Amino acid sequence: MTKLREYDNGEIQISDDVIGIIAGTAALEINGVLPVTAGFAPNNLADMLMKRNFSRGVVIEKSDEGITVRINILVKLGFKINNVSAAVQERIKEAVETMTGIDVLRVDVTVSGVVPAKERRAVRASSNAQKPARKQGLFSILSN
Length: 144
Hints:
The protein is built from 6 helices and 6 strands. It is α+β, with helices and mostly antiparallel strands.
């Protein structure tokens, strides 16, 4: 937990998981970035919304002056790794500082891999194959 403020009637703390979610979500806003998750992509919407997927590959280190964010990302093949990484650094710093008020001293980006387009399509196909059969709703039953 990172202590944000202390008041007469209590204090405000922000969980490292929350900061990790903010950082992970900010990184995914950058074109060319893929999340570091098992199988490279979430299996369904529920997995995507779980905090572990957004904060996976994110480590928060605290000091008296602020925090350091360390993040692992995958980059889509064809994107310039140095440009993508610099954009990730800027976006994470801006997002975390804006949302929490905590000073971000450093953002260390590790590119864990490059994913070719062919592999991305295969991941999407396997992700779709794992989706459970859709239940028929009242509207689809009435329209048949």
